Description:
Layout: H1 2-24, H2 29-53, H3 55-60, H4 70-96, H5 99-106, H6 109-120, H7 127-148, H8 158-183, H9 188-210, H10 215-220, H11 225-245, H12 252-259, H13 263-273, H14 279-298
Helix pairs in contact: 1-11, 1-12, 1-13, 2-9, 2-11, 4-8, 4-9, 5-13, 6-8, 6-12, 7-14, 13-14
Amino acid sequence: MWMYLGLLAALFLGLHNLCKKHAVQGNEVFPVLLGTISSGFLFIATFYLLSIFYPDYALDNGYNFQDISWQTHGFIFIKSTIMAGSWVLAYQALKHLPITIVTPIRSAGPFFTFIGAIIIYKESPNLYQWIGFFIIIFSVILYSRIGKKEGLNFKRNKWIFAIIGATFLGASSGLYDKFLIQNLSLNPQTLQFWFCIYTILILLVILTFTWFPYTEKRKEFKFRWSIVAVGVLLQAADYFYFKALQDPDALIMLLSAIKRSQILIAVVVGGLLFKEKNKRKKLVPLLGIMIGVFLILYS
């Protein structure tokens, strides 16, 4: 069941990435990010209020919220810091790079998670899983060659380094999620609720220095429906992902790879919607990534 929950998370993440590209096009990145997290928080807060006023109903339907210690709050704040850094880098890169380049680079995340899962959690991959991960990395290298044809120099373009940094931080957060869910026994909704609150506070601090003082920047910001959609879709994806992690048999390295199947939506549908270049050539490394995911799933 945890694998199917991982596929559901991938579906919502793919839709989330499409909406995110629409939200940041020609827009200020930091207020867009704040808007998406705030929208997701309001979505989760609805269930939080229901659990307060109708606790029995909430308990019966599986969305009760836990009382947690200050130490646990500190652990959640660490996750918020990691993900805030990842999102700031990723949103900036997404604004300046094609979605069909950004998403495949992000697909290298499972490789970092894979190494961390072996070292930290002692997860044991088999031969086919090793092959699957190296196929994914090789496919990402192919994407870099295609990117050069779109005027992107992967060695000199700072946004490429930004998306690589975002990918590394995102993978670190994925490893940390297993600790929060399994070691601290947090349920998904509790983790999501407090994670959103702390992330909003971090972004407000960043915006205080980078956006609020500047009138011209505030005027350039355009509110779009996709900002709300990004927040809601992300919370839905996270919920299914955290539910999958609650299973003690779930392997974080495999869940991370399963989530990468979101690129099918991002590359195929996103390439058509945003009319990006070299869509056919990008299908070749896309196929490689899908084969890598297949090997991991069915090994």
